[in-house]
């Protein structure tokens, strides 16, 4: 039997690879000679660096960068064996870096994300995978561009300030001081947000309130975004604020697309391609996926559903393990997951359930019992 295991992280408990290894342990108790292939899973958000670095035997790098409010912090990113840099923008420009009282889109910047890119370029990286979930910003990505040498200039020819306030001061864009290595860099952006840059569904209206924006500043920010888009069209005639994903991460998606020629990809699809999961699935007898909680949100296109769709394209059975199952999880059956199994073995507190050793044991024990059932009812794998 060959089992391909591609489980998303059990956030706060086990990484993708740790959950996969626990599943493999349970399978081996029943089928000692089984071939278990573990592939990392992520969707471009939190855990992407950890998943790809651990799954592809990369390494971690650390750089001193600006946080969303310009304070110096240490941020970590990954470098894969082929020198591809894997960056989570939230490591430098993310909402979790701020307390609730510090959320301030008028001054929050993506400058630190640009510094992470710059650090990776200096280390020789020319290919980039960037996850842009969890931002604290609504600056259109101009901070990131400033860190890479773009001139985002005010009426006096000086670099504008940080955040949405800086964006409102922007009147001219230059590229004569852009780092020369950028010409040889390729960017792939993991992004599941489809919102445009401006308008009723744009980043200012939809996402800025959760980042500290009051109702009074939303329309002025949207006006600044539209002006920025017009300036960008003068710089890059193909630029459109209506492009799907332009409004991701407070407009960072727009900046990466039209200043760095980035390719926007569905997060899970990008990781699947990068890890060679499809080739592994082709030769599998069964595919195992899952995540910390299965519910109706999973069925709307999260990583386990992408994996299930891939498996079904090759005619493979799919089962899933999760820490918990909530309302709407049955929709996952309609999306390619043949059966799913919560792994909690007894009534316990959330803290006990999230304990890494408890979670590891629960997954392995559940996998063992599921595969005992498979062995009993099928001769296929014997």
From TrEMBL:
What GO annotations for molecular function exist for this entry? Answer: glycerate kinase activity
Q: Name one Pfam family in it.
A: Gly_kinase
Q: Would you kindly state one Gene Ontology biological process term found in this protein's UniProt entry? A: organic acid phosphorylation
Respond yes or no to whether keyword Transmembrane is given for this record: no
Family annotation (InterPro entries): Glyc_kinase_flavodox-like_fold, Glycerate_kinase, Glycerate_kinase_RE-like, Glycerate_kinase_sf
The UniProt keyword set, sorted, is: Kinase, Transferase
The similarity annotation says: Belongs to the glycerate kinase type-1 family.
Q: What is this protein called?
A: Glycerate kinase
Q: Which organism is it from?
A: Ruminococcus flavefaciens 007c
């Amino acid at each position: 039997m060959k089992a391909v295991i591609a489980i998303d992280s059990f956030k706060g408990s086990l990484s993708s690879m740790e959950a996969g290894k626990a599943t493999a342990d349970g399978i081996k108790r029943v089928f000692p000679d089984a071939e278990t292939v573990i592939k990392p899973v992520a969707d471009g958000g939190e855990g992407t660096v950890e998943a790809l670095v651990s799954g592809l035997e990369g390494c971690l790098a650390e750089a001193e960068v600006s946080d969303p409010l310009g304070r110096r912090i240490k941020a970590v990113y990954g470098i894969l064996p082929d020198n591809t840099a894997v960056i989570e923008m939230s490591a430098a420009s993310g909402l979790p870096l701020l307390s609730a009282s510090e959320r301030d889109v008028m001054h929050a910047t993506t400058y630190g994300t640009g510094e992470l890119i710059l650090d990776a370029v200096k280390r020789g990286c020319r290919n980039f995978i960037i996850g842009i979930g969890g931002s604290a910003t609504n600056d259109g990505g101009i901070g990131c561009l400033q860190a890479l040498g773009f001139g985002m200039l005010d009426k006096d020819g000086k670099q504008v300030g940080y955040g949405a306030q800086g964006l409102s001061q922007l009147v001219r864009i230059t590229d004569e001081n852009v780092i020369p290595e950028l010409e040889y860099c390729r960017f792939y952006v993991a992004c599941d947000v489809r919102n445009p840059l401006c308008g009723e569904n744009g980043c200012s209206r939809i996402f800025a309130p959760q980042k500290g924006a009051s109702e009074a500043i939303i329309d002025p920010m949207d006006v600044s975004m539209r002006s920025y888009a017009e300036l960008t069209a003068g710089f890059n005639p193909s630029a459109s604020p209506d492009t799907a994903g332009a409004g991701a991460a407070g407009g960072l998606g727009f900046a990466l697309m039209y200043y760095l020629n980035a390719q926007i990809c569905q997060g899970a699809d990008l990781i699947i391609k990068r890890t060679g999961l499809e080739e592994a699935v082709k030769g599998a007898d069964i595919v195992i996926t899952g995540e910390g909680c299965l519910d109706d949100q999973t069925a709307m296109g999260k990583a386990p559903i992408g994996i299930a769709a891939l498996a079904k394209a090759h005619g493979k059975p799919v089962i899933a393990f999760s820490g918990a199952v909530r309302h709407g999880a049955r929709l996952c059956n309609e999306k390619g997951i043949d059966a799913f199994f919560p792994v909690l073995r007894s009534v316990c507190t959330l803290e006990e359930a999230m304990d890494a050793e408890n979670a590891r044991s629960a997954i392995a024990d559940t996998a063992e019992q599921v595969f005992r059932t498979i062995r009993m009812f099928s001769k296929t794998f014997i």
